[in-house]
Amino acid sequence: MDVSIIIVNYNTKKLTEDAIKSVFNSRTGFSYEIILIDNHSSDGSVNYLKQQFPEIKIIENYKNLGFSKANNQGIKIAKGRYILLLNSDTIINVETLETMIDFMDRNKRIGASGCKVILPNGKLDEACRRGFPTPSASLFYLLGLAKIFPESPTFNRYHLGHLDIDEDYPVDSLVGAFMIVRKETINEIGLLDEEFFMYGEDIDWCYRIKEAGWIVYYYPYTQIIHYKGASSRKKPFKIVYEFHRAMFLFHKKHYEKKYAFIVNWFVYAGISIKLASATIKNLMKRR
Length: 287
Hints:
The chain is an alpha/beta fold. The protein contains ten helices and nine strands. Helix 1 links the parallel strand 1 (3-9) and strand 2 (32-39).
């Protein structure tokens, strides 16, 4: 088996169906399997998807275990030389699997790679090629300095806005919506950290991949579409909370011991203020 495609579903029956169809529409000589993990959906996803795709493997959870833990369930039974994390709200191009697996086969030191990820409005999903959220990179991003100085490598360290989106290069982090990882790399560094419930696990994984000496690479010569949730709608508090908790967990795990107390204090205070602000803004949105 060349690649095992792991898709986590949680009440996204139609989106998941479209994602799976896009995989089956692929033009590739490589072999693949699809492993679907359902996190206790209430929209009839499991029975519906079993009927539509009897050939795929389905793991049915009886509570929402989160993104990291569900993906790990799939990885543990995967047979592929590569693991592809694929969001349920994505559509891959017909050549995507062929392009990315061929690229990985030709570059043995690359532990993980990702393609160009496009939003429905045609813009780049900036999360598909990122720098690590160091205290300084995060500060420059929050202050809007990246927009004021778009050509500055210093002020654009987080979203790498100074780099051409149509060129390939090593990066710090990819996005979990589409990330292909070498099984050999996973065997060395371990599975996703299940402390991260639904955000931050991709950055953490990439950090550990690079820490082990592997290369993380952005390869934009194929692309996918990522249908993210509409930002104008109110989100459950759990989503807002977990987004900010992931920031706290990542800093505590990887940076707290590297910085002085005062820096850590400002980081945690900043995350708390941002959580409070995001919560208020979210409450003011329409349902």
